[in-house]
Amino acid sequence: MESGLTVNQPSVDEVMDEIVTYALDSASPSGAAMETARLAVLDTVGCALAALAYPACTRLLGPPVPGTHVPNGARVPGTTEVVDPVQAAFDFGALLRWLDYNDTWLAAEWGHPSDNLGAILPVADALCRGSLVRPAGTERPRMQDVLDALVRAYEIQGVLSLDNSLNQRGLDHVLFVKIASAAACARLLGANRDQMMSAVSNAFLDNAPLRTYRHAPNTGSRKSWAAADACSRGVRFALLAMRGEPGYARALSAPTWGFEDVVFGGNQLTLSRPLQSYVMEHVLFKVSYPAEFHAQTALEAAILLHPEVGHRWGDVAKIRIETHASAIRIIDKRGPLRNPADRDHCIQYIVAVGLLKGGLTALDYEDAAAADERIDRLRGCTEVVEEPQYSADYLDPQKRSVASAVTVQFADGTATRRVAVEYPLGHPFRRAEALPALRSKFLTNAAGALGHDRAVALADRFWETRDWLGMPVSEWVDEFLPIQ
Length: 484
Hints:
Blueprint: H1 14-24, H2 31-51, H3 55-58, E1 74-75, E2 82-83, H4 85-97, H5 117-129, H6 143-163, H7 174-188, H8 193-205, H9 222-242, H10 259-262, H11 278-282, H12 296-309, E3 316-323, H13 325-331, H14 340-343, H15 347-357, H16 367-370, H17 373-380, E4 382-386, H18 388-395, E5 404-410, E6 419-421, H19 431-450, H20 452-464, H21 473-478
């Protein structure tokens, strides 16, 4: 090559350029976003601690080769594991997602932005402990750095989800987790623009998984670790980028072989709003019940009807659930429910338990609880219908409601009142109401793994103060070591 000449490089696809620029931006997120991120970290870690009680989850944890030792590796909260950050991202990601209890984002593509903590916390922990090399001239990352990275991951995943539906193409939302995790972790690792471009573009080029494991007849436990797999892939792409692996500037728009032609049928991927702090500020917390979020309002309505219905279950002739189109698409299920993964995504099952028991816990999805013949009887007389206004309000950016209504008719011709719930507890419109319950949820989740006294002490410190945001990440993670 002659001196002074450069190779003509293709321009970067606009969406990737926006993501890269945002992920590298030095501006701090809004105060409201950082405060919500504080709550999100605590809530998500609590969900992970609760999952430690489920052997179907814990059997997945640990290095692929038993006994592998990683000096100064990342710790997985609530466990004694010390593993490499790619494995830690899978393990922690599986724990926090297992019970379908972490926060939610609903748009054209639904998902769980806190899944990204599965990647972010282990990478920050490994940087803090020294198994990953910190950017030159930087101190050990602190928890406020985790919150900053988490706000950015929420924004990337959530804004991608606003107008770009993967589910309508039979693909799973965890692709957006992978992209967001890759970008957030590359930021923590000190990526420059080329390295960030590598991490993001390789995440886009990675396989977009079929979501068949979330639907009959294939519903299974993979839906509880799919995001963990995405987290670990995101970490891997960030680490490869830091080793000099190149990126792909036209990963989206390349004719025939690009993401838009192959995955989106020739349609353009878009970002409908600037990347700022919108998603974190408006995220939906699951507060009271570990149920798929589209069913939360129907469950709240059913619980309100429990005093009228629970003792009369044998007289029920018909249960009518009016809800929005997205709920019908993914959780309207009839026929046999073969496992907990099937049951926690069935609106009829969730409503039946709420009517019968006046509440719902993760144990209500297990085989022993599902053997209760009353549940299937109520499922069999339930109809689910779309209320068009609910579907419209679900997509309205000024509302983002998740509305449902439940009415129960009895064999003697009488009926309950129609109970409608527009916004579930945990929606931004009910945030203040949700805060005490969110703290109680953390206490309950942490107590099983760490004991009641430690859970109370952690809640008192982390929920009531903010001084821990200056803690080195490794010291904060060590607060969640199990009882020896």
